[in-house]
Amino acid sequence: MLKIENLKKLQFLRSLKIRIFLIAFIIGILSCNMMRYAILQNYEQRAVSLRISDVQTQLNILANHLITNRYLQGTTSEAIEAELSLLSNLYDGRVLIINNNLKVVKDTYGISGGKTIISEEVIRCLKGENTSQYDPENNFIEMTVPIMETLEADEVDESGKPAGPQYVARGVMLISVSTDYIAVTMDILNRKALVMEAIVILAIFSASILASFVIVRPFEKITDALNQVKAGYSNEPISVPDCLETEHIGDAFNAVISRMKVLDDSRQEFVSNVSHELRTPITSIKVLADSLRMQDDVPVELYKEFMEDIANEIDREDKIINDLLALIKMDRTDSDLNISQVDINALVEVIMRRLRPIALKRDIELVYESVRPVAASVDEVKITLVITNLVENAIKYNKEHGWVKVTLDADHQFFSVVVADSGMGIPEDSIEHIYERFYRVDKSHSREIDGTGLGLAITRSAILKHRGSIKVVSEEGEGTTFIVKIPLTYIAVS
């Protein structure tokens, strides 16, 4: 129970508005922190660099004075002592003068005088290398500057030219410089930066809320439109051009609305067609029965004729109902196929023998060509229905003394059944409608040509259930060709 409550509390995180706000706000905070850190680090590096440069200049001047006054040889000088004391006080640090024997000649703190100092920095400095090291934790800079003496050289070099003056390190000045003022300045800068950061974060907070509402607003428009359609208040297309993504969603929504309208119109037309098709035979039966009932002493010949017409209308009604039931059963997504290994060549031959008498009545030549033996895993009943409907239609909608040709072929994956005829053909604007229920290409002759208008709808549904395809090529007045392709091996979709 507690877990469910916790999950409910976290539901708000699924909101796009909340996510946009959090992303913008977190990025803003991180950017402010990184900027403050970068500014402080840059200031610290710059301040330490300037401090080192300033102190080094002062030490170089002092080093010259030490050599001039021979301070390392033990000569005392009030001026040098004053300079050392001033330098120590100026930089709030400690100055040590070390000779080339590593002994401390002078310590402004008066602690290490006369002692020997052995350190890497001092030894490197005696070789003429300046060193500096910044300790941010203890707030000081430790520097070493060599005390160099210039010696005039009388010797000549290998080329015979004067060798020039020689520089010799007579000692080292080691100084520790306080950086407390840098730390204090950084602390002041940090406090000011925090105040500015708080102001900026507040602005980012407000901007994030505003941005989340502005960005999500188009989606809310789409949601409102969907709710309007769901409630049945509107079917009108929407336009949300606020941004490219919402415009695409709006276009997709409008396409769905159009599709829904088409489906609704198709449903209404289907209901109307079903009502009409079912009512027509019943009306004919009622008219014939009333005619017989209203006449006395009806001749036997007329009675038989009317009863035969009534029987035909009953058969027609029965065919319509059976076709409707077959189509409804075919439309069910959970309807199973009775798959078995079928000899397609033998199946087509049986169908052709059954339909040959119908073709002979209209003097239509029925031709069957088998390119190769074909065996496939199919539902025999449904495939029989497919081929029968196509060949029957080719016969019904053919010309007198015409022809119908059925060709069976296969490759490594599919088998194909091609039904071609020399009939009246299909108008170009009707081809995309021929699979609709109760659709008739020639409505004026729909009563003359026996059928329910459901055959091709049933055929297409059976083919699709086998994961196959059906294609039609037709030219009005020149005939029609149906091409059916069905996989040799049926693979059920789990």
Given as residue ranges, the uncertain stretches (5+ residues, pLDDT < 50) are 443-449
Number of beta-strand segments: 12
**Rg value:** 51 Å
Q: What is the first-to-last residue Cα distance? A: 35 Å
Strand order, sheet with most strands: 2-1-5-4-3
Query: On the 0-100 scale, what is the average pLDDT?
Result: 80
Give the biggest sheet: 5 strands, antiparallel
Alpha-beta classification: alpha+beta
Q: How large a portion of the residues is in β-strands, by DSSP E? A: 15-25%
The shape, in one word, is: rod-shaped
The tally of helices reads 10
Helices and strands, in N-to-C order?
HHHEEHEEEHHHEHEEHEEHEE
Helix content: 40-55%
Quick overview of this protein structure:
By secondary structure, this protein is an alpha+beta fold. Helices cover 53% and strands 18% of the residues.
Question: Care to describe what's here?
Answer:
- Strands 2-1-5-4-3 form a five-stranded antiparallel beta sheet, sandwiched between helices.
- The two termini are 35 Å apart.
- It is α+β, with helices and mostly antiparallel strands and 494 residues long.
- Helix 6 (244-294) runs antiparallel to helix 7 and helix 9 (380-396) packs antiparallel against helix 10 (455-465).
- It is built from ten helices and twelve strands.
- A hairpin with a 4-residue loop joins strand 1 (94-99) and strand 2.
- Residues 443-449 have low confidence and may be disordered.
